[in-house]
Specification:
The protein has 262 residues and is mostly helical. The chain contains 15 helices and no strands. Helix 2 packs antiparallel against helix 3, helix 5 runs antiparallel to helix 6 and helix 10 packs parallel to helix 12. The model has no long low-confidence stretch (mean pLDDT 95).
Length: 262
């Protein structure tokens, strides 16, 4: 086995060279040498998130000043869609600065940015980048989420669940949709029977997040869901209630026992 290299070092001059080579065919005026040297100089003593932001900021400085024009160039370098449910991070790390570009600079271009987030999540993930847009205009975001949960691409359907998770790891906590966990549960209900294991895991994790702050709401909802559906994904439900079960929550344990005996 080779020596472990911290992920942060991926976001340095080598990635700057790679991004430059991808951008130049679509934007011949891109100042490659300036872009690479600026990144190489700034990232040296920085941690992962700071390195990603440096690359993002240098993209903003070296691409056209018009956001939509700059974004159109970046969308050209996304590459083919990820056809599997694996590798969205390992194969898509180079897109982290692109996702952050939308997260940081696209707020005044809501629709164009939301379209970009869908394209990015098909190859990497937009679960972090979408969160400022939820805060900016939840009602408009919900219109997109309701459309995306019917998308044929599991990565897009997963974004509906993962992007709205209240306790998404490595992200700032957010309140439930319109401060009501029932709104989150209404979205999740449409994904409970999803055929994708990738989506199922996200839904279970989202349920688990909600259960930590709204245990009674989640338990009541899960009971009703089981009552109304003959075929339920018992593994998803058990995973979604895992923290409550671990904490010895009696009703959660009863639910798990019940679905085990169905």
């Amino acid at each position: 086995m080779g020596e472990y290299i911290p992920l942060k070092y991926y976001f340095g001059d080598k990635l700057a060279v790679r991004l430059s080579s991808m951008i130049l065919p679509h934007y011949p005026n891109f100042l490659r040498d300036s872009f690479i040297s600026n990144i190489s100089r700034q990232v040296e003593d920085k941690e992962l998130k700071a390195r990603v932001e440096i690359i993002t900021d240098e993209l903003q400085k070296h691409l056209p000043g018009d956001y939509e024009e700059a974004l159109a160039i970046l969308l050209h370098i996304l590459g083919p869609e990820n056809q599997s449910e694996e590798g969205m991070f390992t194969k898509g790390y180079f897109l982290m600065p692109v996702a952050f570009f939308v997260e940081k600079y696209g707020h005044k271009h809501f629709d164009v940015s939301m379209h970009a987030l869908v394209e990015i999540t098909k190859r990497h993930t937009s679960e972090y980048a979408i969160r400022p847009y939820l805060a900016l205009d939840m009602d408009c975001s919900l219109k997109y989420l309701q459309k995306w949960m019917k998308d044929s691409n599991p990565h897009v359907r997963r974004l509906v669940s993962e992007g709205t998770r209240p306790r998404l790891p490595w992200a700032k906590r957010i309140n439930p949709i319109h401060n009501d966990p029932n709104n989150n549960l209404q979205l999740l209900e449409n994904l409970m029977g999803d055929s994708s294991a990738y989506v199922q895991k996200s839904v279970a994790n989202h349920l688990n997040d909600l259960s930590k702050d709204f245990s009674n709401v989640v338990i009541t909802w899960v009971k009703e869901y089981i009552h109304l559906h003959k075929n339920v994904n018992s593994r998803l439900i058990k995973h979604g209630l895992r923290t409550l079960v671990k904490n010895g929550e009696a009703e959660a344990m009863e639910i798990v026992s019940m679905i085990n005996n169905r």
